[in-house]
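Form 7-S
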Amino acid sequence: MTSKIILGLAAAALLTPAIAVAQTAPAADTSAEALAQELGGDSITVGLGAGYLPDYEGSDDYRWAPVPGVIGSVSGINFQVLGNRANADLIPTRQGQDWDFQAGPIGVVNFMRSSRSSIDDPRVRALGELDTAIELGGFVGIGKTGVVTSPYDKLSVSVSYRHDVAGVHRSGIWQPTINYFTPLSTKAAVGLFGSAERVEDKYVRTYFDITPAQAAASGLPAFRGRGGWKSWTVGAIGTYSLTGNLLKGFKIIGGSTYRKLINDVAASPTVSIAGSRNQWLGVIGLGYTF
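Output:
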């Protein structure tokens, strides 16, 4: 689902202040030292952004959509609710620890092709609407602080699995992810992101197959695919404090991703004929941390 990556991108950008204190100057920089002392404390960030994303996964038509979100850390428990996605790391993160072990629940509301009015291509509209899927599961991961550029950059790897419990595609999605964040100053930080998704057969057959009846209605050829690796994604994000620093006040958030659809998903006529396997997404927004 295309909106998922936009929301995840916004989440990562908003989370940057919580996982990387900005310090590019020597230890004598008292402002950076003061920021370091605040790590591990409770904080909440609220944000609102605008995302530019394809009409559906595989579309070559794009639209703007709002991206609201809330991200927080309370007693070392990190959580986020970003539009259609929510997760929480239930292993507390303590101040000063270098290694961060992560595990917790994850949930996604999958709106893929659930509204014909949001799809410009008449051939894909003719395939009909799909119900909204509810995907629930969990993730595990590990992160290391102080890796390359400073004592406060962070490299994290994780893997998640979620399964539709609403009876729409009735299948699961595996997603390995790698993130790298580094501070540039007490006001700015950037990050890089990479992930891939592997889906089961019923996922592909729900969202990318075309039955003979649908082929007659849409003009697209009939198609039946199988599960497997669906896509890989890379992206970059950034945040800059407008008031205060990375751990308080207003900040601007922005970033973009490139996703490549592969295998049977890329071969589906909704992608190969009516859309594109190359998927670009972007987000720009404003957040406030308190």
